[in-house]
Design goal:
It is a single chain. This protein has about 450 residues and is α/β, with parallel strands linked by helices. The chain is about 35% helix and about 20% strand. The chain is built from 14 helices and 21 strands. The strands form five sheets. A seven-stranded mixed β-sheet has the order 10-9-11-14-15-20-21, sandwiched between helices. Helix 2 runs parallel beside helix 12, helix 3 runs parallel beside helix 4 and helix 5 crosses helix 6. The chain starts with a helix and ends with a strand.
Length: about 450
């Protein structure tokens, strides 16, 4: 037995733990680039190469900064696409910082919101790395930053990917722009909220706008589940005959679908797209193929969803041959509350920033989160913030002013409240969907190359 122990000891003595220098792969991101042009890798603080963006590089900024942070911080995660959607996301970031400043000015006892900004932008490779980055960022926010709520991210696909993660952690997520109707089915755990109305509510408004006495054909551009889901939402609300004839268009190629739609003979077209390039291609192709009668354009109506309202459509107005066709385009989109004192104050404090309706929905998202977190007398936690958010409902005590203290006090006393935000009265349904959202009918003013809109009841 003694001889066996000696041999075992001799065998172990020939092994050694790897030194730290053995594990060093990189000093900078450039060291992780592959000669064959494979997926992007980055260098971690531990000097290892990892696929995509290293987790510690995703969440590098806090607001207020450390030297100005409140004595009793309430950590909130903010998920943005700062690198790849700079114009839009920069506006969201400004709106979030303003909302944090305003709420912190009304909190007492040294408490205040601290925003942890995470950039979850798409890496060049691999495809859909923004979803991986979102999950990595949320992991950092939950395990290291101990956030009690999340605002964002931008896309419905991201919220879908994060639903199980945040629900398991019992930390509420409030999205200002995730509109996919099927998200409502993922909100049963009570931790997914959104201030923007779902596509189903928008599609129902659009179905009432489209006349039903001249026939209707439909085109949707496939982009994940968005196109088919929006079409199904519209169909569920469509009350007229004849029924829709559907033409499916693969992303980036609408020609065949447009030809089929026009050959159907219907006087009106439902055209669904969620990016500017496809929206412009649909309208341009429809204009090119509209039958003529004595040189005049036929009176075909083109009805579009809110995400089609992009600057790409306005650029078409520079082509004088398309201007008459552009007057036939209209749609329904999420709106704002033009009579709201909150929106008026927001515009005055951030002139020129609110270039996108979702900036206002972003403001309302942090407004709701900040009031919910600030209403908790003891240490805020994810479950407590979620419970407070569930008491922001239509029909509660109405808070119709820009002073946030009454909302914090009312919610803290256990009351149900209804907040007047930049986008209208804010209330959440039981599953976290927005209740009582604002909508507007939009069209194109070809004289000024701008969108015009009117509120829709």
């Amino acid at each position: 037995m003694r001889m066996m122990l000696v041999l075992v000891w001799l065998g172990l003595s020939s092994c050694r733990l790897p030194a730290a220098s053995d594990l060093v792969e990189c000093d900078m991101n450039l060291d992780c680039q592959r000669a064959d042009g494979g997926p992007v890798r980055t260098c971690t603080l531990d000097r290892l190469c990892v696929l995509g963006t290293a987790a510690e590089r995703l969440c590098t900024e806090t607001y207020p900064a450390a030297q100005n942070a409140p004595a009793r911080p309430i950590p909130i995660g903010a998920l943005l696409h700062i690198s790849t959607l700079t114009a839009n996301e920069a506006g969201r970031k400004q709106v979030l910082m303003l909302a944090a400043d305003e709420i912190n000015a009304r909190l007492e006892g040294g408490r205040g919101l601290v925003l942890h900004f995470c950039d979850v932008s798409q890496d060049p490779q691999p495809p859909n790395s923004y979803l991986v980055n979102a999950k990595k960022a949320v992991d950092v926010l939950l395990r290291e930053r101990h956030v009690v709520a999340l605002v964002g991210p931008t896309f419905s696909s991201e919220v879908t990917a994060l639903a199980d993660q945040v629900s398991a952690a019992q930390v509420p997520l409030v999205s200002p722009s995730a509109t996919l109707t099927t998200l409502s089915q993922r909100q049963g755990e009570g931790y997914i909220f959104r201030t923007v109305p779902k596509d189903g509510d928008q599609a129902a408004k659009l179905a009432r706008l489209v006349p039903g006495d001249a026939g209707l054909t439909a085109i949707y551009v496939d982009d994940g589940h968005f196109g088919s889901d929006y079409y199904n939402d519209f169909l569920a609300a469509w009350m007229h005959q004849p029924m829709l004839v559907l033409h499916f268009a693969p992303k980036g190629d609408v020609s065949m679908a447009v030809n089929g739609a026009l050959l159907s003979g219907a006087a009106n077209v439902l055209a669904v797209a969620n990016n500017g390039d496809d929206a412009a291609a649909l309208v341009k192709r429809l204009a090119a193929k509209v039958p003529t009668d004595g040189g005049a354009r036929s009176p075909v109506g083109i009805f579009m969803n809110g995400d089609a309202r992009r600057d790409s459509l306005l650029t078409l107005a520079k082509d004088t041959s398309l201007q008459l066709d552009l007057t036939r385009v209209s749609g329904i989109a999420p709106g704002v509350d033009q009579a709201s004192p909150v929106l008026a104050a927001l515009k005055s404090k951030l002139p020129g920033v609110l270039t996108n309706v979702y900036h206002s929905y972003t403001y309302d998202a942090l407004y709701a989160v900040g009031v919910a977190a600030g209403s908790i007398a003891e240490e805020p936690s994810g479950p407590r913030v979620a419970e407070a958010l569930h008491r922001i409902v239509l029909g509660g005590t109405a808070i119709n002013e820009t002073d946030y203290l009454p909302a914090i006090q009312a919610l803290g006393s256990g009351l149900k409240v209804t907040l007047r935000g930049a986008t209208g009265w804010i209330g959440f349904r039981e599953n976290g969907d927005r209740d009582g959202a604002s909508f507007e009918q939009w069209s194109i003013d070809t004289a000024t190359d701008t969108f015009k809109s009117t509120p829709v009841p």
